[in-house]
Design goal:
elongated
């Protein structure tokens, strides 16, 4: 017997207010913090920012502004996904993609740091 039915007999849409959704938001946030840390270390090791938008902000406004903007964008993306995820559960896939992309950036930064150290 299915318990996920409404009074009208239609299956209710699952909500994303679950521990898994919270974990995904935390993973995205942690990946972005790791990106900021590894970007900082890479820049100190002599690397150049590869993202043209970030490079522009870095050149004209400095590292603190770049990192503040990144953290602000993390908050905006996470909040948008959480709010839209209630009505459109498929938007959670976008957060999976964002987390994967940021993780790739972190891996690239770590490789840059490793090559500078050796």
């Amino acid at each position: 017997m299915e318990q996920a039915r409404t009074l009208a007999g239609v299956r209710s849409r699952p909500t994303k207010d679950t521990p898994a959704s919270l974990l995904l938001v935390l993973a995205f946030s942690a990946a972005e913090v790791a990106d900021i840390i590894t970007t900082h270390v890479s820049l100190r090791a002599g690397a150049v920012e590869a993202n043209p938008i970030a490079a522009y902000v870095l050149r004209h406004f400095g590292e603190p502004t770049l990192y503040s903007l990144k953290l602000g964008l993390v908050a905006l993306v996470a909040l948008t996904i959480v709010l839209l995820g209630r009505s459109y559960p498929s938007t959670w896939h976008a957060l999976h993609v964002c987390t994967a992309l940021v993780t790739v950036a972190v891996i690239m930064n770590v490789l840059t740091i490793a090559s500078a150290v050796t």
